Structure formats: C-alpha cells, structure tokens
Amino acid sequence: MAFPEIVGNIGSRDVAEIPMEAEPIRPARIGPWAAIGLLIVVFAILEVVLPMAGLDSFVPKLTEHLLTADFFDAAKYPQATFRSTSVKALGEGRLEVTGTLDLHGVQKPVVLEVKLNKAAPHAMGKKETIGFDATATIRRSDFGINLYVPNVSDEVALRITTEASVPSGAK
User: Fold this and answer.
1) C-alpha torsion sign, points 80, 160, 11, 131
2) Whole-structure pTM over 0.85, yes or no?
3) Are 113 and 158 within 8 A, CB to CB?
4) Among residues 120, 127, 132, which one has the least CA distance to residue 165?
5) Distance from C-alpha of 66 to C-alpha of 52, rounded to nearest angstrom
6) φ and ψ at residue 154, rounded to 5 degrees
7) Residue 75, exposed/middle/buried by CB under 10 A (0-12, 13-18, 19+)?
8) What is the pLDDT of residues 84-142, one digit of tens each?
9) Three-state secondary structure call for residue 124
C-alpha cells in the first residue's frame, strides 16, 4: 500500500459533439430508458483521446515529474486513448463498457463501469442532456509505469465525469 493517495486530473473543459442522426433520441422526452439507449449508442462508438500534457496533480513539481520518462513520458507518449469494443446494459441506469486503453505505448483491455446520473434539459443551456460517470481501476505496472511500486501505489483509479447534449440545430 502506498503512503498517500495521489489525485490528478487529465483533461480540459473543451466541448465535443457526438454526431447524431437527423432525428436524435430525446432522452428528456421519453425517459431514462431512452437515455440508456443513447448511452449505449454513444459508448459503442466511443474513442476518448487524453492529452498527457493536460495532466495536473495539483502539485506543480509532482506534475512535472509525472510527465517525465520516470512515469508517463509525455514527450514520447503524448496521449492516452480509450476505444470501446462492446457495451452491455446492466439495468438501473448502469452500463459496462469494454474497450482498449492505449497508455505509455501499451494496449490493454479495460472495463468501464458507467452510471447514468441524469437525463433532462440542462439548467443553463436548456438543451436535452445526459450526465454520467464512468470508473475503472488499472495497474500502472501493466502499462510499463513501474517506478516506486509498491511504495507508490500500482493501482490507479480512473474516473470520467461528463455530459452530452443534443447538438445545436438538432430537431
């Protein structure tokens, strides 16, 4: 077991649109089951690219060290990518999304546990929106990031929190 739990963030507040059919599913109008259907469609074609330069441990010196060849080697491996390969509905607003995580030049299967948080018009933008969380735990040593294991935890908890809205102009 490691001494501290280190928390970090990779990402940005950029907005991405997911292409939808001309008549998109309206989760707020037809209820949570349609929202799960929409999530299944979204996750079936999901590819998430995370720029490693966006890593922030909230401790500047630690962030700088994590980006070196000792850990993520962001100069050699500038991004991590998750691509879904299958989606299974588990009921009660939950999904299991299996895919491949490409991290540090190594590809390994990862299973995301996804929970639908809400499907409704967004309070600010008034667009129909679904919000969800996805979690998984990986071992960094599986991806060749071994330094200080076991004194610094080998397990890394991944958490993805996001929302998806019906694109502007969709009917």
Assistant:
1) positive
2) no
3) no
4) 127
5) 10
6) -80, -30
7) exposed
8) 888 888 888 888 999 999 999 999 999 999 898 887 888 888 887 888 888 999 999 99
9) coil
Could you tell me how far CA 14 lies from the centroid of its own chain? 14
Pairing mode of beta strands 155-165, 9-10: unpaired
* DSSP codes of every residue in 84-153: EEEEEEEETTEEEEEEEEEETTEEEEEEEEEEEEEEEE-TTT-SEEEEEEEEEEEEGGGGT--TTTTTS-
CB of 96 within 8 A of CB of 90?
Answer: yes
- CA–CA distance, 151 with 3 (Å, rounded to integer): 7
Q: Which amino acid is at 149?
A: V
Which tokens in the block code for residue 39?
Answer: 């999530």
Residue type, 50: L
Nearest to 27 by CA among 160, 116, 153: 116
The one-letter code for the residue type at 1 is: M
164 token code pair? 């998806």
Rounded CA-CA distance 4/45 in Å is 36
